[in-house]
Write a structure and sequence with these properties.
Blueprint: E1 3-5, E2 14-18, E3 24-28, E4 52-54, E5 63-65, E6 67-68, E7 75-77, E8 85-91, E9 94-98, E10 104-108, E11 112-115, H1 131-136, E12 193-195
Antiparallel strand pairs: 1-2, 2-3, 4-11, 5-8, 5-11, 6-7, 8-9, 9-10, 10-12
Length: 199
Amino acid sequence: IITIEYDPNRNAYICLIHYRDGEKGYILHPRGALIGDTIISGTKVPIKMGNALPLTNMPLGTAIHNIEITLGRGGQLARAAGTVGKLIGKDGKSATLKLPSGEVRLTSLNCSATVGQVGNIGARNKSLGRAGSKCWLGKRPVVRGVVMNPVDHPHGGGEGKVPIGRKNPATPWGYPALGRKTRKRNKYNDNLILRRRSK
């Protein structure tokens, strides 16, 4: 590891890696990794923080991040600052993973993951301090429909603080809101999810 750098595209830090063959690349910063540390990526490597290897070579209970779903596609799960997944089972060609969201799902044992937790675990505790800081992140003000006029929102209108005036909440365009499922039915990977994420 040559440097640990800030990345504006994510809330985790990134590490500049200098490979033995002269190549350079970036990885997500694993928690506890320091400048000068050596990390290894391969099939038969020790279970050490920052090392990347296939799930088939990891013992049960290993804390992992940057988890592949599709072989050869690179890590897609548990990449945000402070996130960590867990390898909780192996059965045939499948590995059972517990993800940071609480979801339990299957993936191929040949898929790779990085040992340890993503660094910068305090990212979620950072106080933005003012509305402008939130604006820089693209978070615009949220105005409740019930304080609008009827022309602007189905919840609008009425004298003073009144109920929304309908059975179920609606979006500004009249579609059901708050509680309607938005995930596509019969999605191709439904059979890989053993337990849905906890709210």
